[in-house]
Amino acid sequence: MKIIIIGSVASGTSVATKARRNSESATITLYDKDTDISYAVCGIPYAIGGEVGDFDELTPRDAQWFKARHNVDVHTSHEVLSIDHSVKTVLVKNLLTDEIFEDNYDVLVFATGASYQTPEVFQNQTFDNVFQVRNIHSGKVIKSFIDRQQPKTAVVVGAGYIGLEMAEQLKKQGLDVTVLQRSQHPMPHLDWDMAIRIEDEMQKQGIQFRAEETIAEVRGTTRLETAVTTKGNVLQADLYILATGVRPNIALATSIGVTLGETGAIVTDKTMQTNLEGVYAVGDVAESFHVITGKPIYRPMATTANKMGRIAGDAMTGGALRFQGILGTGILRFFDLTIAQTGLTEKEALDEGYDVAVLFNIKPDKPAYMAGQDMVIKAVADKVSHRILGAQIMGTQGVDKRIDVFAASMTLGVKAEDLFHMDLAYAPPFSTTKDVVAYTGMALTNALNAAPLMTAQELLALQDNQTEMTLIDARTAESYAKGHIPGAIHISVSALREESASLDKDKLTIVYCYKGVAGNAAQNILQHEGFKTVYNLTGGHEQYQEIAKQAKREH
């Protein structure tokens, strides 16, 4: 069997190595028009910033290594120009010699990846100080520019993963950084009530964030001198980074009749085979499906690319591996903030028709006496099945551990009640006795059964509509005096049993504390005292102030 793989980064090389492990008789050839293979794309911003000492650390394996270790022929600087699938041949150009030759295959794999979407205003334009983080070469060019030109100012267009990583690395090198984002908030695949914390971190770090603004006009010849934004602002910077998303490289595949999915990427079956027999697609060029909804999703990640490659390499050589979908799990470090997400956001869950319970759990990653720091977990669960649908976490430490617990749990379809029963590791340097994940399960279980939660947005909407309600601040008198939610009366938890007699038990009642724990205790007391409708404000006073602050920004 002759296998030809087009593309040799994460997914292409994974296909080759797994196929070789299964079969010593297969002939395996990879063609890639780039000069580097199997490199760590996600490490490029850190090499640009100097956190990774040398770009060579991102390219630990070369063509010679693959030949010696796996008997796989890797040809870099070779572009596949066209394919004739009727006779199973590819036309290849050696970009170093301009030689054009033909090769044949029994199995063909598209691992052609994705390309950055270039904003329309930059298309067919070339400026010496405008860059995209595409591959190792582009990273080296950016690094060289910074070292030679010593820029003082930078504009980053796009506030997704690469945009934020580049903003961080440039700021750490002393540049004055401005970030433009087409949508209202950074990281638009997050719920806005979590993404606003990224804006807080930008402000803390001295990065200027311009929401709902991008570049509409460029001025300059060889160098971009000024850029005019969609809001009419004129920007001048020494360095520009375009990080405006990616699109799958599907041209070669569609030229032979490969079918695309509704996301615009190649649709495959669970073996990663396309609609054409013996033709596979893996990595950033291929469409995934969501573990929870079963629906198509395009979320290009290195972990998914490696997984797809291994599955395809196994399946085409007789193995039993099958693709089981993704949750879209991702994580990002942005200065002191770790940002992580898995599964459905609240917005996505509502769009899918779920009736959801939403919890904001603000808890430390370990005890205060071990310098624990608060993290914010937003968890979404289905009110009907109680299944955990999604989690978003932000904090300074311990976030990576918790998001992986949620991802593993959700892959197995656990319910909110199950989180409490997990036997998670505990010692003071690592966790609290009641880990934040277990507490999330407990609080969600309460909310899904007898102790309903209300979000800060819902309370603000009630206040805007001047809804009749009793709003109780269950914190200490000192905390209430320092600041409280408008319209709230103060009754501490310890005094609530006695003073509740003076309240209207038939009126909508909402209780809150600092972060939600004492609010739940107050809610239980009032329910036992016969109050008909009692909500606990999830995330408490702290979450309310964060959302109210955003409301003021918008007005």
From TrEMBL:
Key words of the record: FAD, Flavoprotein, Oxidation, Oxidoreductase, Redox-active center
InterPro entries, per the entry: FAD-bd_OxRdtase, FAD/NAD-bd_sf, FAD/NAD-binding_dom, FAD/NAD-linked_Rdtase_dimer_sf, Pyr_nucl-diS_OxRdtase_dimer, Rhodanese-like_dom, Rhodanese-like_dom_sf, Thiosulphate_STrfase_CS
Superkingdom to which the source organism belongs: Bacteria
Pfam families: Pyr_redox_2, Pyr_redox_dim, Rhodanese
Taxonomic source organism: Pseudolactococcus reticulitermitis
Cofactors, names only: FAD
Protein name listed in UniProt: Rhodanese domain-containing protein
Domain Rhodanese residues, every copy: 465-553
Signal peptide stretch: none
UniProt xrefs under PROSITE patterns: RHODANESE_1, RHODANESE_3
